[in-house]
Write a structure and sequence with these properties.
- It is found in: Cytoplasm, Cytosol.
- Pfam families: URO-D (PF01208).
- The protein has eleven helices and six strands.
- By secondary structure, the protein is α/β, with parallel strands linked by helices.
- The strands form two sheets. A four-stranded parallel β-sheet has the order 1-4-5-6. A two-stranded antiparallel ribbon has the order 2-3.
C-alpha cells in the first residue's frame, strides 16, 4: 500500500470526543472511556429489526447497512467510541473460503481446511481493495455520518484465531483439529499464519486509509494455546502485524493507536 493511500481525506467532521484516543495513547483522561465489543447487537430492538430476514454476510457487504448498525447504539448510549459493524471472518472470505452464518449454529465453513494440501485452494495474492473494499466504504461512510461525535475503530481477527476457524469449520470448544495442525504440520501452520498476517496488515492499513481512527486485533482463541504454543504460533504474528502497520503509518505521518484483545492469555504475554 502506497504512502499516498494513507493520507486521510481532509473533509471528515472534526472529532468532538477524543477520550478513547487519548487513553489509547496512554494519556490521562477525565473518565475511563467506554465502548463495547458487540456494541451493535441483538440487545437493540432496532438492530434485530434491521437484520430481520437478511443474510448476515450480505449485511456485512452493504456499506449503508454497516453504517446504520454502527450508529444505532450511539443514539441510545453515551459511548466514547464506535466500532465498525463487520466480522472477523471476512478475511478468510477474501482468501477464497466460503463462510456462512447458519441460524442456531453460527459461522460455518462448508469446506474447511483438512490437510496442508488444501492451502493450495487459497488465493496466493489477495487484492484487499477488491475483496474487502466494502468494509473500507462502510468506514468512510460512517466517519461522515458519525459527525465527529466519537472516534471510529476498525478491527480484524488475528492469524491464529482465523486459522482455527478455517480448520475447525466453525466454532469449537476444544479446537482439537486446529491444534493438531500445529503439532502434525508446523511448517504448513506457519505458512498459513504468514498468509493471514500479510492480508491482515494490508486490511488494517486500508481501514486507516478509509478513515478508521483506531485499530483492534482480536486474538479470541489465544487462550486455548499453552504458553509454548502461544509464543510460537500467536505472539510472533501479533507483533509482526503491530510492527508492520505502525511502520507504514509512521512513514505516512499517521499516528493511529492499536489495541490487542488476546482472550485469557494475560499470564502468557
Amino acid at each position: 500500500m502506497s504512502k499516498d493511500r494513507l493520507i486521510l481525506p481532509k473533509d471528515f467532521p472534526q472529532l468532538q470526543n477524543d477520550t478513547f484516543l487519548r487513553a489509547a495513547h496512554g494519556e490521562e483522561t477525565e473518565h475511563v472511556p467506554v465502548w463495547c465489543m458487540r456494541q451493535a447487537g441483538r440487545y437493540l430492538p432496532e438492530f434485530r429489526e434491521s437484520r430481520a430476514g437478511k443474510d448476515f454476510f450480505e449485511t456485512c457487504r452493504s456499506p449503508e447497512a454497516c453504517c446504520e448498525l454502527t450508529l444505532q447504539p450511539l443514539r441510545r448510549f453515551p459511548f466514547d467510541a464506535a466500532i465498525i459493524f463487520s466480522d472477523i471472518l471476512v478475511v478468510p472470505q477474501a482468501l477464497g473460503m466460503d463462510v456462512q452464518m447458519v441460524a442456531g449454529k453460527g459461522p460455518t465453513f462448508p469446506e474447511p481446511l483438512k490437510e496442508p494440501e488444501d492451502l493450495q485452494k487459497l488465493r496466493v495474492k489477495v487484492d484487499v481493495d477488491k475483496e474487502l473494499g466494502y468494509v473500507f466504504k462502510a468506514i468512510t461512510l460512517t466517519r461522515h455520518k458519525i459527525e465527529g461525535k466519537v472516534p471510529l475503530i476498525g478491527f480484524t481477527g488475528a492469524p491464529w484465531t482465523l486459522m482455527s476457524y478455517m480448520i475447525e469449520g466453525g466454532g469449537s470448544n476444544t479446537h482439537s483439529k486446529a491444534k493438531r495442525w500445529l503439532y502434525q504440520h508446523p511448517e504448513s501452520s506457519h505458512m498459513l499464519l504468514k498468509m493471514l498476517t500479510d492480508v491482515i496488515v494490508e486490511y488494517l492499513l486500508g481501514q486507516v486509509a478509509a478513515g478508521a481512527q483506531a485499530l483492534q486485533v482480536f486474538e479470541s482463541h489465544a487462550g486455548i494455546l499453552g504458553p509454548v504454543e502461544f509464543k510460537e504460533f500467536s505472539l510472533p504474528y501479533l507483533r509482526d502485524i503491530a510492527r508492520r502497520v505502525k511502520d507504514k503509518l509512521k512513514e505516512a505521518g499517521q499516528d493511529v493507536p492499536m489495541v490487542r484483545d488476546s482472550k485469557s492469555v494475560f499470564v502468557l504475554i
